[in-house]
Write a structure and sequence with these properties.
Helix content: 25-40%
Number of strands: 18
Shape: globular
Radius of gyration: 20 Å
Length: 393
């Protein structure tokens, strides 16, 4: 089959690779209908996620049809149209049973690297390095899905492929960001990053009762989408001081909730010295991540407020304002998305017309255009929010 493979920093190639096969009795093989790029994939391209190997298939946000199933798959059948949550849970361990499937004890068959880096091993992730299980990704004609009964969800009638594909990752990640922040009616929520996850976090904040939502970015098309599609007040961080602007917009109080939908490659905006410092330390390996957004959120959030972090971080950061966080009494909530907890709820919002993530798909291309699609996505060219590949088109 054809697949989009990582072969080094900024080196993606469409290659012929062996078709996937059933490995365990709870597996299914999915014929991929749509597979989307994701902002966290850019960390792979930039070389910021270790343990990638040449030939690894990337991609983790996808939808497709079951064409083969193992003998212990009970609830799914051949021909089912399913969305698969991008972060893999086993469904049986204590974390999965409590809804924290991204902390699964069993789905990462290669735990050594994660344990060495983080002290404990979390779940496996499709197409996201050997530290997260070494699973083949979804930018391919077919993909093997383990623990299929727990990770695969039938798409209800009336929901299009274009809506459903983002329930694999962007929608539950954004929804979880809003949910774990404990948003209450009347809250003001500020979201850093107006890409796919940020858009869904903004829309989800309203679904959970926020009175005002502020979207922070620098790309005009993303700020327009935040305003027109997610209903947020747009804020261009290259034109204003973020702290001063948020103070002005909230009567000197600061947002009740701040959401980080950016992660390890954050831009410092108008603070050129801070940006140069972070990029230089990252380039020489003295820090793995650029924490500009985290610094801004700690400074801007109201006293006693909550920071919700779903942007991906991989390692260590410098100049973290812990004193400000402690003395302001801030609450930090963070983690990889637990999509299995949210998938059915999100389908309900879509069916009711309360949520329509299909606008995230700004470009739909053949898998053969994968390298070009990622260049466009990385460069934010042609008003690109998400490129989605259709491997069998």
């Amino acid at each position: 089959m054809r697949a989009l493979c990582w072969n080094g920093t900024n080196d993606l190639r469409v290659e012929r690779v062996p078709d996937p096969v059933l490995v365990n009795p709870h597996d299914v093989i999915v014929k991929v209908s749509l597979s989307s790029v994701c902002g966290s994939d850019l960390h792979l391209l930039g070389g910021y996620v270790p343990t990638m190997q040449p030939g690894d298939i990337i991609g983790h946000e996808f939808l497709g049809e079951i064409v083969e199933k193992g003998p212990e798959v009970r609830y799914l059948n051949r021909g089912d149209r399913i969305v698969t949550v991008s972060i893999i849970g086993c469904g049986h361990c204590g974390h999965c049973q409590h809804g924290d499937s991204s902390l699964c004890d069993n789905s990462n068959p290669k735990p050594e690297a994660a344990r060495a880096a983080y002290g404990h091993c979390g779940a496996g992730i499709f197409g996201y390095s050997h530290a997260f299980g070494g699973y083949a990704g979804s930018h391919a004609e077919y993909v093997r899905v383990p623990y299929a009964d727990f990770n695969g969800f039938r798409v209800p009638e009336g929901i299009t492929d274009e809506q459903a594909v983002f329930v694999s990752d962007a929608v539950p990640t954004g929804y979880m960001a809003a949910d774990m922040a404990g948003i209450k009616p009347g809250d003001v929520v500020a979201v850093w990053g107006c890409g796919g996850v940020g858009q869904m976090a903004m829309r989800s904040a309203y679904l959970l009762g926020a009175e005002r939502v502020i979207g922070i970015d620098r790309f005009p098309d993303r700020l327009r989408a935040a305003q027109m599609k997610a209903g947020a007040e747009p804020l261009d961080y290259t034109r204003v001081d973020v702290f001063d602007a948020l103070q002005s917009m909230t009567g000197g109080r600061g947002p009740d909730v701040c959401i980080d939908a950016v992660g390890m490659e954050a831009d410092s905006g108008a603070n050129a010295l801070e940006d140069l410092y972070d990029r230089a330390k990252q380039a020489v390996g003295l820090q793995s991540d650029r924490p500009a957004v985290l610094r801004q959120m700690i400074e801007a959030c109201r006293k006693g407020g909550t920071l919700s972090i779903v942007g991906v971080y991989g390692g260590v950061i410098d100049k973290f304002p812990m004193g400000a966080a402690m003395n302001k009494g801030l609450t930090f909530r963070m983690g990889q998305q637990n999509g299995q907890r949210y998938a059915e709820r999100l389908f309900g919002h879509i069916v009711k017309g309360e949520l329509d993530p299909s606008y995230l798909m700004t470009h739909r291309w053949s898998l053969d255009d994968g390298p070009k699609g990622y260049r466009m996505f990385k460069d934010k060219a042609d008003d690109c929010l998400r490129v989605v590949f259709a491997p069998h088109a």
